[in-house]
Amino acid sequence: MFGLIKTWKALEARGIMGINRRNADYVLKYNKRHLYPIVDDKIITKERALAAGIHVPEMYGIIETEKEIEKLDEIIGGRSDFVIKPAQGAGGDGILVVADRFEDRYRTVSGKIISHEEIEHQISSILTGLYSLGGHRDRALIEYRVTPDQIFKSISYEGVPDIRIIVLMGYPVMAMLRLPTRQSGGKANLHQGAIGVGVDLATGVTLRGTWLNRIISKHPDTTNAVDGVQLPNWDGFMKLAASCYELCGLGYIGVDMVLDQDKGPLILELNARPGLNIQIANDCGLTQRTHAVEAHIEALAKDGISEDAETRVRVAQGLFGHVVQQ
Amino acid sequence: MRSLTLHLKVLITVLVLLGVTVTCYQIFILGIPVTEDETDDLWNIDAKVEFVASPKDPVKIQMFVPPLNRDYVSLNESFISNNYGVSVNRTDGNRKVTWSARRASGNQTLYYRLVLTKRYSTEKAKIKGPTFRDSLAVEGPEKIAAEALMAPIRQHSADVETFVSETIKRVNNPNDDNAKLLLAGDNSPMKKAQVIDLLLSIAHVPMEKVHTIRLVADTPQSPELWLRSFNGSAWLYFNPETGEQGLPNDRLLWWTGDENLITVDGGKKATVTFSMNNSEMNAIRLAKLTDENTDADFLEYSLYGLPLQTQQTFMIMVMIPIGVLVILVLRNLIGIQTLGTFTPVLIALAFRETQLGFGIVLFTVITALGLSLRSYLEHLKLQMLPRLSVVLTFVVVLIAAISLFSHKLGLERGLSVALFPMVILTMTIERLSITWEERGGGHAMKVAVGTLFAASLAHLLMTVPEAVYFVFTFPAVLLILVGFMLAMGRYRGYRLTELVRFKAFLKKADA
Fold first, then answer.
1. Is this complex scored with an ipTM above 0.85?
2. Which domains does chain A have, with CATH numbers?
């Protein structure tokens, strides 16, 4: 009991945010319920992003009804690689990444050969709402398959590494690079076993990482060091993330982005309830940073100014960048 | 944000205060018992009237019955008599029953039966009484003896109370010649009372004779004489033989005045025998019975006013918030993961039918079998709705089979399964299997165990009989619960599991 109180005090002192605080002080406070569909439905997110001129993976088509599954061939056309996603999926579930065609069959990114029927069944499952939040009927989205930049080759196992930036009222507060592992099955979700690596907001250089709630500095599959890697085009990522506030209107979001080797930074999806493991990856609590941003906004509000995305990025980089690792 | 917090604080305070006030009002003012085990005495008094009727005259028997206007309340009163007309009337604070018959002969037996209990409500009607009266006429040696007695009594007393008790003491003093003269060799309480009455009347102190019955089970009773005097605000009771002041709690006032208990016209050898017994009764049932017989209908607007069947449903329903509270604490304070938000409460409700141990076994068996069926169906690539239907049907068949087997084996417990909510089980299986596929078996097991644990705990708390009684009787407690839930809505602290989850920070800090 005493030990627990000590742990509690120590975590509080370091500004570690718990789920209850995140929900009460940030998600409920800054995220208006009626805006949730924008981030919960990837198709709406994509449409909004395109309208705002933000880069997203190209959408090949949408399947809304069982009948439309017939059109799958037409949508895919001659492409040999594509991704099928549930529009309202959560936690990366129900995503099928086809890397290649193999005679009449398809090969997924993990090397599994599947038939056309299996793909159709997957789409049917998506439509019935198997993967959607709350089990509602859903739409299936077929889109461009991202090819990760070569920079990640050495520190990633299969799959597509992505970059998650937590954005509070348009100010990036914390960033993390998520690397799939053998255990996560190519998915970049931390609770499925992916690695989270902290990123310095100012420089885009990676810090140490977290894997299954532990702090690590090497990728468990490739044994290459995950820290000290310079992410290319970092300011581009930061600007992209900061501009997502205008895109969706939600005040506290996690922005998931990828670095495509041809198309550069792309927005994959937005998350209205971003996870807390990013704190372990950065070895830093969120609360102090969010408080700093809130104080900054309050000071600006007094003078009646609001800043644009570029200024916000610079403010955030000034406040939280250049982390010194112990 | 600040104003919202203030708003919330006010709301919580109001709710909690309201809940506490209503509950306290129920407990302390209305006197509703706090636990179900509290019982109250229920007295059953029989007065048996026997007499011999004269064959020629009409018969009229008048007997005093308790007025029941103070500490006791009657639950049931009956006059048992064949061929007699019965009427009850009130005179001077007394109640009198009159039995009458045109023709009767031989030995007659009439019964008066009264079931009563102490009054719940503590509010008392304002009592009135005389504070002055004229002296009784007295002549000759008695007058001198009385006056001789009065002088020291006056000297030794300060107020009505001490005056009366001093008088009683003097009259009961066997060595006092004056008292002896007045008693004229008759030492019965009745005579003493008469002498005391005389003495007090000289001092203009009003006095009444009170005839009481002692509430003691299984001992023959005859009315006991007490005296009482009004001191301006309350009646003071005195024992005419000992001067003892204050009426003991077990005395029931039967009638007041000089008249006899019973008067018989057209009959003779009238005797009245009292017999009584007491039984204990669940206090709340008793309160309800009393309620029907009094004006104070404090239970009228409680849940006890509902029909019995509905009451039983509500006994379960009022406990659901307690179960929800358990889930709330387990999830938001402890951080245990459960399947869905309120699924554990539904499972806990299902445990009511099956009992806990058996319920857990059943839940585990059916879920495990359902999961294996689900994983088989996965290969068939069915759509969700047909697949769910198949699982549901399978669950029904499984439950039927378990019921049948357990019945054949003589385990009646198995039959309760039939009411185990099948839809809950089906949804549990479906969600669990999805969790299994997406998050792995370990996570699914964790969630399943968490759900079972939460359900068991909720079930245990929801079936504590004392708690059920308390919440059902004092539903305002739910307001206090809502207050707590509201406070939890703004809880920002860590969950217990987070302390473990974020341990990585501290290990590094130590190193």
1. no
2. 2-40+149-320 (3.30.470.20), 58-143 (3.30.1490)
